[in-house]
Input
Amino acid sequence: MTLPQNSGAAPLVLASGPGTGWLAIAGMLTDLAFETDPLGRFTAFAPGKALGQPAAQLLGREMASLVTGPPGEEGLSAAQFRSIVTTICTECVAWHGRVQLTRPDGCTSIFRLSLAPRIAGGSVSGTYGVLFDLEAPELTLPDSHAGRTGDPALRLNSMLDAETGLWSHRTFAEEMSRRFDRLDVEGQPGTLLYLGFSRAPAPMHGAIAMRMAGELRDIIRPTDLLGRIDATTIALWCDNMDHLTGGERAAKFCTQLPPLLPGNAQVTVGVAPRWAGSGEDTSTVIAHAIAALRLADIVAQRATGAPASGAWKVWQRD
Output
């Protein structure tokens, strides 16, 4: 068996700030992003599940224990993998190659694995790693060719909304659900905001959605999620945000966004917090956001004076 080669013997100088903020971004671009200690034991993961199971179940486990490569060109044994991790940490080099890993259900898959040394205090303290599942089906952008039924920008079997480039309704819900396990482990809340502009004329919906998406991209945090739910609703999920901060953001959106939107479109916002350990799944949180948005729409419709400034509501248990 021929081992995959490392990227070279030249030492790497890596910038390494405190925290694991890079994981949130890498997790959206790969099938799994993680960190290990010098012995190859998992110490941190991107938000969501790891190889199909809660990340907390893999923390502290040696990655080599998942390697089940058979003999042959694709094979890589656990002992060989440990040797690679040791080389990375002692010689400060990067490595990439193919490995076969065992999933929680007992099935195996071939992954493309890249590892790089993690620097802390001037010395190597472990590795950064990303995995790409080579056997997973590829996701494609929406096909907007003529002849399709329905609005191609909003088909739920698409990964992205074609008009705004935001996550589609289905993909947004999947990405949001990946955050719940980590937030429960950390004891932190999260908040879903539904931003609506249903009172705007229908011919303007596309232009308003695109402009709103652009404005929100400029002001949200890197770890926040944006998605387009339907023609007149954009969703924003925020980790580590409670109902009070969510209400403050909603109030600002209602006053600051309309002057930036076509036709000075009125904005209403529904806020749905999710508390750690609540057991609420994605569909429940979304239902709460929809209910809060409807209440905000009712308040906005009843408001007097011109121009109406919009309204926001926070979902609360009775």
Q: What stands out?
A: The longest helix spans residues 282-302. The chain has six helices and ten strands. The chain has two domains: 22-133, 155-314.
